[in-house]
Design brief:
Layout: H1 3-9, H2 14-49
């Protein structure tokens, strides 16, 4: 069911709907970042296949920042 419909029916509070919206925005941002990362990796691979320098990007997804 749609969050706005739940909100209108009183099945969801305004703060809960706001948090759901914030979560959706964060998910969209994460998807955009992952898509950009995948595009960059493909471009770097194509560059290396055409005889260019093999450029590597750092893998920071699992890195702990102390």
């Amino acid at each position: 069911m749609d969050a706005m419909a739940k909100l209108e029916k009183g099945e969801m509070t305004v703060p809960a709907a706001r948090e759901m919206s914030n979560l959706g925005a964060r998910v969209n941002t994460a998807v955009k970042i992952e898509q950009e990362r995948a595009r960059l990796k493909m471009e770097l691979e194509q560059h290396a296949q055409k005889g260019g320098a093999a450029i590597k990007i750092r893998e920071i997804e699992g890195k702990n920042f102390d």
